[in-house]
Automatic annotation (TrEMBL), chain A:
This is COMM domain-containing protein. InterPro entries: COMM, COMMD4, COMMD4/6/7/8. Residues 134-203 form the COMM domain. Signal peptide: none annotated. It comes from Gambusia affinis.
Length: 203, 214
């Protein structure tokens, strides 16, 4: 039913945490949003700052436990990344959050932060989308074979290609080394140029 | 149910009541504190593994041989794991511990130890099971193949899926991932099969069995 959840029902834990979000002042919440956005964009989150921002908030009569802090960070992270995922504009996000019970100042503050970083968020999410085995680098070498054990005068060029790809687990890399004869290499080059022309036509 | 403690076990735990020579009141205090200290050490060892240096330190402080300390702590650990394993009630725990012939205070402190840490010990024990890889995360992408080397002007939709699994073992958890590719029709079939599996939990047969387990 909510666009920022991808036209699905809002998860129960989000509903529960929105009511706890309402208990923090809206200024503090905007600063929290800034921290959470830094985390999503990969710049790292400063837990000390987050702790200070939530230090004097009280939920009911007992002070915040570390589980509550993590829950607030999680719900902000979910709302912001889910809204960016489904390309929701900030007015719809604001009205939907108010429907869920977030007070108006909080919703406006959140949506202002969201709008500022909207395209940066989408770029980051695009980068982290699933890619199988990205190509990291290509290095090549052209040799000239003079002779071999089979034939005394060979006199042919040979291309060596080294391809570095990212392996299946993040952080690992695989290396593939191929040596190609000139004719095969020309075929490979022509085919790749045709594929490139097709890609450029789509841009 | 009552825990039946073997003779060796009782002998190891009797270390906790060994007298030391000074006045009666201070002795009792010493024993309760010793028991609490050893209880803490035992639970630490259950969480992180044993540390022989602690045995030596304790043995020096209490002027007893190292093996006695070690057996005492191991006896405590075994008592805790067995009681948590069977989820015995407090009454049963007290009755089983009475068989050791300790004083009332010692029994109370052992009971407190058990009650406070029962769930923790159970969660540690449950991690020792070697099991199948479990679902961790699923990433997917939807692509359309427009051309290939042999055929241009195609439209072939494909869903690429990376299934991330984790398997827990004694040395921690290991991650593995599986890359899969499917066309939309197979994907829809997969979804309907999995939904049928979920619906099977709600049949009357499954409900009858779940009722009886609870």
């Amino acid at each position: 039913r909510f666009r920022f959840c991808g036209d699905l029902d809002c998860p129960d834990w989000v509903l529960a945490e929105i009511s706890t979000l309402a208990k923090i002042s809206s200024v503090k919440m905007k600063l929290l949003c800034a921290q959470v956005l830094k985390d999503i964009l990969g710049e790292g989150i400063d837990y000390d700052k987050v702790g200070k921002l939530t230090a004097d908030a009280k939920f009911g009569t007992c002070p915040l436990k570390s589980g509550d802090i993590k829950a607030t960070v999680a719900v902000l992270s979910f709302i912001l990344s889910s809204a960016a995922k489904h390309d929701v504009d900030s007015e719809s996000l604001s009205s939907e959050l108010q429907q869920l019970g977030l007070p108006k100042e909080h919703a406006t503050g959140l949506c202002k932060s969201y709008e500022d970083k909207h395209s940066a968020l989408q770029d980051k999410l695009r980068d982290t989308s699933l890619r199988l085995r990205r190509l990291d680098s290509v290095s090549w070498r052209v040799d000239y074979t003079l002779s071999s054990s089979e034939l005394r005068e060979v006199n042919e060029p040979l291309v060596h290609l080294k391809l570095q790809t990212q392996g299946a687990e993040p952080g690992s890399s695989d290396t593939t080394v191929v040596s190609i004869s000139p004719d095969k290499f020309r075929v490979l080059l022509t085919e790749l140029k045709q594929a490139q022309a097709m890609m450029n036509a789509l841009q | 149910m009552l825990l039946v403690l073997s003779e060796d076990h009782k002998e190891h735990l009797s270390f906790l009541t060994k007298t030391d020579g000074s006045g009666k009141n201070s002795l009792r205090l010493l024993r309760v504190e010793v028991v609490e200290e050893f209880g803490r050490i035992a639970l630490d060892f259950l969480r992180k593994g044993t540390n022989p240096k602690i045995y030596e330190g304790a043995a020096r402080k209490l002027c007893v041989p190292v093996e006695m300390v070690q057996h005492g702590v191991e006896g405590l650990m075994f008592l805790m794991t067995e009681s948590s394993k069977h989820m015995i009630s407090e009454v049963d725990f007290m009755d089983s511990v009475l068989a050791l012939g300790f004083g009332e205070e010692l029994n109370q402190s052992l009971l407190q130890l058990y009650v406070q840490h029962k769930h923790q010990v159970r969660s540690i024990l449950s991690q020792l099971l070697c099991n199948q890889p479990a679902y961790h995360n699923l990433e997917w992408r939807l692509d359309v193949q427009l051309a290939s080397r042999s055929v241009r002007h195609q439209i072939v939709p494909m869903v690429t899926i990376r299934l991330l699994l984790t398997r827990s073992s004694d040395v921690g958890s290991t991650k593995s991932c599986m890359d899969l590719q499917t066309d939309p029709i197979s994907l829809l079939h997969m979804i309907s099969t999995l939904e049928a599996a979920l619906a099977a939990v709600k049949t009357s047969h499954a409900r009858r069995i779940l009722r009886n387990i609870k």
